[in-house]
Amino acid sequence: AEVPTRTPGLIGRLLGRGGQQEVLRRTLDDDMLEQLEELLIASDMGVDTALRVTANMAEGRYGKKLSVGEIKHLLSGEIARVMEPVAKPLPLYAKKPQVVLVVGVNGSGKTTTIGKLASQFRAAGKQVVIAAGDTFRAAAVEQLQVWGERAGVPVLTAPEGSDPASLAFDAMEKAARDGADLLMIDTAGRLQNRKDLMEELSKIVRVIRKKDPDAPHNTLLVLDATTGQNALSQVKTFQELANVTGLVMTKLDGTAKGGVLVALADKFGLPIHAIGVGEKIDDLAPFDPEEFAAALTG
Ligand code: GDP
Fold this sequence. Notes:
The protein is α/β, with parallel strands linked by helices. It is built from 11 helices and 10 strands.
């Protein structure tokens, strides 16, 4: 997978890129800090997080003259420090099958992410089963079947409009029968009717717990990084609907506004298991805080 490129990054936009700019020294004063805050806010970091990051950066250094390189280094260091605790790959337990419930609004990249994850786990020698739990969207089921074929993973489907919980139950049985390591269950992403969605999700959980009281072992929320601050309200909503245990951030290849990841880490502290960096099957990368911070700061 390619590393997302964002040129110019925050500092690049503020101070110009590379070259002789690198030797300029700037005083870390109120004016400078305000400009940095504005840039961080424009990157979707949110006001609270932006203020905290700049305050930490200025601590013990206020009024000092710093080179552009030093400013970049300090800022990316502060951002990486916020991100480090959340950078964790999806844990694989010995338990078979490990059940991962995948939630998120339509269009966030759920289907694509399930396909990419299935492919990665297959490559690691794991046996994977996918359940196409968004039974109301025929197109979503078809898409998931295409991804299943690409990844070489069976996709369990049910007739359009049928009960996703009953499909999930069948999938639990199939995964156990096949000795699968991992079962990923796709779910509907219609937020228009929250009550229905909540009932649907809790019914799926109730039913799979008949087979394994610890399931789902992970509930993965897929978020589109290009939706900016909207991602924060989606986390809140899905935390009310399900017991979200981790995030995958998609479409980080297409945005200079990845600052929302910092706001998410700061506010919720949920693990970021992976990032989507393109539309292809290999375009899912582990989340690397230092690389991310350096790219964002630029
Ligand atoms: P779903 O409705 O949540 O299942 O979303 P899909 O998986 O169908 O994805 C919606 C659109 O986003 C599709 O066009 C995908 O190709 C695209 N997409 C998903 N993940 C990424 C990503 O990481 N980068 C880019 N550029 N596009 C993505």
